[in-house]
Amino acid sequence: MHPKALMDACTELVRQVLKFDHAADAVVSQFFKQHRNSLGLGPRERFVLSGAVYNVLRHKLLFDHLSPSGSGPKERRMAILGWAHHLDQPDHTNGASPGSKEFLRSALSEPEKRWLEQCAAIDRSALLERHRHNLPEWLVTSLKAQLSERFWDYVTALNRPQSLDLRVNAFLYKRSEAQAMLAKERIASEPTAFSPWGLRLPAKTNVTDSEAFAKGAVEVQDEGSQLLALLVDAKRGEMVVDFCAGAGGKTLALGAGMRNTGRLYAMDTSAHRLDGLKPRLARSGLSNVHPVAIAHERDERIKRLSGKVDRVLVDAPCTGLGTLRRSPDLKWRQNPEQVQQAALLQNAILDSAARLLKTGGRLVYATCSTMVEENEAVAEAFGQRHPQWVPMSVQAVLTDLKVDKASQLCAHNGLYLRMWPHLQGTDGFFAAVWHAP
Q: So which residues are the catalytic ones?
């Protein structure tokens, strides 16, 4: 593809993403589908375009600061900066490749080349904080209050290539067996530091075409997400509910822990999301999973299970602000009002899910958010509304499950799970656990 044509495509994709009408990954995916034939977008072109766009999202405030000094449409200037940032690593590619600096330069006018060189020469350490952290101020306030001097470690982690985590299907394979299967296909992996089911691979490793994936030996799942399922500690023969199952990643982990016995309900208000569970369920070898599409948290199908369930996982709908490494657009698409709205829904869902449990049952509340309003505040509000429910120490639960260095995963004297990109190399996760009265 001609360099100038690829730059035009990059400019248009940046323009569409910066509208923030839809999730960035959905916009990028739709753009590739629409223009696969007309633009001849191959794997290398898609890699450059997606890399450029996500760099614009990660460094938006910096690029907003630099772009006025250039000329032409702002979206083009932002696209140039995003593309150039994508190529900051030493160039080992062929000069004609879309992944090379020479290819990018051939897409630019002479004034644009000079402007890009001027931007590259700026001392980034001398810039204002906002141009270095590239986060909205309302989010910075919350994060600094929580992280203090570790805030900049967190910022660095957001811009570091994230590894790929896999969960081994413990119903069918041991972790060592799955690791050996991957090794046969020259896919290197190492055991995760905390999850007993996890394998960690280099960023951008393709496993979906592997035999291990096809046979159901592994599923893509962040290590933090695996630990949420582990906290439920679902047993053989029990009745368990994954209350907000989505596409069922944690459902499958629960089913494997139950050794395909008992009854496991995967509930969600989106039948479309539950449809994503079907191919994964077929690979998993599990037959004890029962998907249930519900209308809302007070659905009659929920009421029929009231007081009958042994364990419930509520991985609640949230702002997703713990996933900024892979979804940097969320920091621009969310705001404090949406955080408060999410918390209201989370409180309602948690109350409804609690009614399912029998005496002695276990309730796990979790989010992939870093916001106190969605995490500790929701857990504390639940405790105030339901003082008879006994909070369980997450650190103690994980220690009983033989998780090494469980204290490194917990906050508030071990009461809650708190995972961060700069500490555990995962997305941001929170969890609280209660014992039903």
A: 368
